[in-house]
Known about the structure:
Elements: H1 2-25, E1 35-39, H2 44-47, H3 50-58, E2 66-68, E3 75-78, E4 81-101, E5 113-131, E6 136-152, E7 155-171, E8 176-185, E9 188-192, E10 196-197, E11 202-204, E12 207-219, E13 224-236, E14 239-244, E15 260-265, E16 267-280
Parallel strand pairs: 1-2
Antiparallel strand pairs: 1-3, 4-5, 4-15, 4-16, 5-6, 6-7, 7-8, 7-9, 8-12, 9-11, 10-14, 12-13, 13-16, 14-15
Amino acid sequence: MKKLLISLIAIVATIGSSLAADCCNNGCKPKKYRIIHISATNPDSMYGDATYSDMILGNDAAPEYHMDEYDSEPLSITRDWYIGGRVGLHLMSWKNKYKGSPSNYKFDESENHDNYVFEPVFGGGVFAGYHFAPHWRGDIEFGYMTRFDDSDNGFTFKLSTPYITGNAYYDFASGFYLGAGVGLAFPRATMDYEYFTPDSESETKLSFMGALMAGYSYNLSESVALDFRYRLAGFTGPKWTRDIVSPSPIVDGNGVSLTSLETRVGFIIDNSLSLGLRYEF
Length: 281
């Protein structure tokens, strides 16, 4: 059966190539699909199907053919380019560390850091990509994590993060996929306090960003897919120092007055769940 199927594929490929050449000689530009999967378990159902004939012969579609054994979905087409967008929830974890000046100023142990664990913010992004192999695709993603706010003891901390990553994915026949990405994050942080000089100032850092992804794609139509994705990403935050001007000195237990405060946003871990819509053409 497999030998017969391979022979039929070769015949169809020869016919398709001949028709494509004739069409191009006449000045037309045929619509092409990158890959066509033909069921090895039930090949007879394919060759009597009108849709199959239209896709192969009518559109001169196939510069490349690939055979996989699928128990269901006997024919699937993967197109070349795609674009899309996604919205999601980001659960972010990191630690803010504080250091006073002069160097002999001592914070209480409970005041020299803030721990943030699974802090929720919303986000979204857009992407554009290309299928460069039967199961492989890659895209460029532009995203934004909306602002996180925290107010405590007269201090207000804010953090928002735009980013850009290049991602590569491996798509399984079942619709599940795995991926990884690298790129740049631009975390922007602000610490407000009435005794800071100036009282409000932001700091942005250019930071390397890495990510691992897993997800599932569901085809709503031949060209549109719904995409559910989990992503684990990480990047480092900014560091900056602010001078303090207070009508009454801020002193530690040893009587040392605080003159400036350094804030360091540590390594940020982002667990995100997002829903995307992908259009392939």
